[in-house]
Write a structure and sequence with these properties.
mainly alpha, 2 domains, two-stranded antiparallel ribbon, 6 helices
């Protein structure tokens, strides 16, 4: 038997091992599957403006404009259906849950007839299982206390 086929076999195995090693090294560069925030960002750019109340600077939200935007229902549906198990690290979870909390809060305000304050929707608005996240009904309170707070970010209310 010639040494040539054996040499080719070793080269072939070496190439396969190198390709497997490169693939293993590149797994860190794979990006996680995250929601597409582009529609949400566009809606915020169109409907949030700097303002002030009693001299205190704040951001004013045009809830009627958000409600009228045809993309809004897609944003809410995206949050409702997104599989949170796809989030691979603390940063992704923090960003997702903060955005989800804000989106679902805005949606409750819109569905509540755009009251002067979310408090006008009732004290239990935060505790009712009236929002959908990861395919399940939950509450704003559960998102804050069971999902966000355990991530250890003290500034969640300032995001």
């Amino acid at each position: 038997m010639s040494a040539r086929p054996i040499l080719l076999l070793f080269k072939f195995r070496a190439i396969i091992l190198i390709l497997l090693a490169i693939g293993a090294l590149n797994t860190g560069s794979l990006q996680a599957v995250e929601p597409d925030w582009s529609t949400y960002n566009a809606i915020l750019r169109q409907n949030v403006r700097p303002g002030q109340i009693s001299g205190i600077p704040l951001n004013r939200v045009n809830y009627a404009g958000i409600k009228a935007n045809p993309g809004w229902s897609n944003v809410v549906a995206m949050i409702a259906a997104f599989p949170v198990s796809k989030l691979s690290n603390r940063s992704e979870k923090l960003a997702f849950y903060i955005n989800a909390y804000n989106i679902l809060t805005i949606d409750l305000i819109i569905k509540g007839g755009i009251p002067a304050s979310i408090r006008n929707l009732g004290e239990s608005v935060w505790k009712q299982n009236n929002v959908r996240l990861d395919g399940r009904l939950t509450s704003l309170d559960a998102i804050e206390h069971q999902l966000l707070r355990p991530l250890g970010e003290p500034r969640i209310h300032f995001a």
